[in-house]
Amino acid sequence: MKPHPIPPLVTDAARLDALADFAILDTPAEAGFDGIVQLACQLCNVPVALVSLVAEDRQWFKARVGFPPCETDLNSSVCAHALAQPDALLIIPDLTTDPRTAANPLVTGDPFIRFYAGAPLRTASGLVLGSLCVIDKVARPKGLTASQVNGLRLLAEQVMSQLELRRAVTQRDTLRASEHQAYVARDALRDTQLAIVAAEGALNPILGAVIDGAMRAIPAAEGGVFELIEGPELEYSLARGALLPHQGVRVTLDGSTSGACARTNQPILVSDAGTDPRVNGALAKRINLGSAVHAPIARGSQVLGVLKLQASYPFAFSDADLAQLTLFAGAATVGLTEAAARAELRAKDVYWRGLFDRLHEGFIVGEVVRDAANRITDWRYVEVNPAWGELVGIDPATVIGRTIREMIPGVEDEWVNEFADVVVTGQAANFTRQAGTLRRWYEGRAFPLDGDRFGVIFLEVTQRVEAEVRRTALLALGDYLRDLTTTAEMTHAAAEIVGRTLGATRAGFGRIEGDVEAIVIEPDWTAPGQVSIAGRHQFDDYGDIRAHLRRGEPLVINDVTTDPRTRDDPAAMQAIGITALVNMPVREKGRTVAVFIAHDTQARIWTPEELAFLRNVADRVEVGVARVRAEELQGVLNHELAHRLKNTLAIVQSIASSTLRGVTERGPVEAFERRVLALSRAHDVLMQKSWTVAKMRAVMESVLAMQADLDRFALDGPDLDISPQAALSLSLLLHELATNALKYGALSATAGKVRIAWRTEEGQAPALVLDWSESGGPAVTPPSNRGGFGSKLIRMGLVGTRAANLRYDPVGLQAEFRAPLAEIQVQVH
Hints:
There is one protein chain. The chain is α+β, with helices and mostly antiparallel strands. It folds into five domains: 8-170, Beta-Lactamase (2-Layer Sandwich), CATH 3.30.450.40; 200-347, GAF domain (Beta-Lactamase, 2-Layer Sandwich), CATH 3.30.450; 359-460, PAS domain (Beta-Lactamase, 2-Layer Sandwich), CATH 3.30.450.20; 498-631, Beta-Lactamase (2-Layer Sandwich); 662-824, 2-Layer Sandwich (Heat Shock Protein 90). It has 22 helices and 31 strands. The radius of gyration is 39 Å and the shape is extended. The chain starts with 12 loop residues before the first helix and ends in a 5-residue tail after the last helix.
């Protein structure tokens, strides 16, 4: 027997890209995935469970129980066939009889597997990466129970959650590493600029500081050199690292990469010196050059030389490294230019002042303030640059001579104590800290100067720090929502995370009543000293604030005393500690059903990043709450099922009374049994939908299959969701029609057929129209009397409307039944 072809979806480019994005293949075992396959084995009572990922040329198992190999080829893969079923489990009761798997080597040979069930591992965009599957070595004709199917699907969702969490953590770590290197590069550039200032125009210290800083910022560099132009040549004027033995070497401007950089005044990246035609091959061999970056040093349009970093192997540098080197070349240009002019400008201090003022970083010269006991209690500003004012939001002209405690009331003690330690110990210190009253984060370096003075150079990093805080908060929220089991616990945990992350004074989650008329707030989180507002509130009591939420837009108010929607009467909000607020709506089927709230006692501007964070939290909480409520609803549906079964028994009793009254022979009894069986089939379909809705086609097929092969029936119409009552009525009606057709009509003849067509008609009262059309049977004639109970059921029509039009044509019975669509379909409230 030939193996079944590998499904085309295996090689789908979008699916393979999605799998590669998770970077999961060939990674070590992880407890989170191992625990899931163990649970799958216990749930389904099987010896084998796998987290199987289908790659282009193999299937690989991230976790496995009872299956030694860590991967197989695709010819041995059953999971590959699950790719085509993103919304349903693939269940094969007997692998030896299914054409897709009968020739599978794992079926025909060791370990001789016989049963398979796989839940798809589906991404948010609908792409299937593989499956969480369970395998048995004996066939299972009945497959899995409903609870096992549901449990396996939920475990597959947990696998995807683990994959998403793993990817988020990896991305976070990558970002942290990138940010760390960026910080190292900024720190190196900052130190280089300070060293240039300290060099006071001395050429070699300036060049040495630039080379050292560039090599520190670009770790791939093994050697660095300044090549200054001397006539038609470039001289290795100052070298570091692997190029130090070659200091003093001269190369011609023509026929070298550095010469090309100098002539064009453009930076150059040499990825592979062995293949780049611009490289002087003899020189490259002499200095062991594998790859390099070059940046020109120019004053105006005049090129003074070239700054070069190199490595002994190819592809050591990137375009980002070239851009970074250009910054250091710029610093060198400044240093060389200022060195040339320093003698003239020294008396007026123009050099220092110009460089100081041009820095993009904030720069402070401070002097500590001591009390009578010689303890440092404060420090005053001696000098600041213009960038300081932009980064702090204070006019630099107002600060000189004043202390930090005067300029920023309530500033944290660490802003004094750490700089005091720099003065006392004489040791520089790096810092990343928030100025709380300014709501800004700063990162920089403080270093000692003469006596009680110190210097600080810094940048604002508020966006970076807060973004990291928000990312960490979302990861923590995901952990909470996965573990908590009640709505109150979820909403309170989310509220606390939001409140602390955004520095708000209150946060919470509330359900909307009516047309955004009122809100019922779950137990909320509050900062110390603030009161809870859990409970029911009318929106109109707080201003004209309903319109945005009705439209599904966030309600964002930075200051209730100035916002046009609340400024006429802000007292109601101020009375419960609200000066700024955000209501982030949660939508469902086109209307706002809940909001996530954040309040502040102070006016503030809510940033787009904060609003996006709230949107993300609101969506995640809604998903978590929906999960809990769905579980609660299942309990309610179980009670409803019992109630409906009682009603069904009442129907059975009525049928029994009508069918068997005064009858002693077996015929009516058998008719009764068949009618009860028809009801039972309808119940089966309803049970598959948890007694809430049934698919119309499924009800038809289930009932008609009792009477004749389904190929005797032609079904034509939309597959509607119908109510439980409609499903029971339809099953009885079709049972009676099919019974009559089997006795007297089309189904009594070998070639007879029945066509069942249905459609919806629009109008003031939309209706469902169902046509029963027989052909190919014996000629039929109208009954001579009203008939029995079966005939009564037919004349009652759908859901008891009695809208039944019966025509006994010679070719067969033609019947039309009508019913209001509202009585057929499930009503959504």
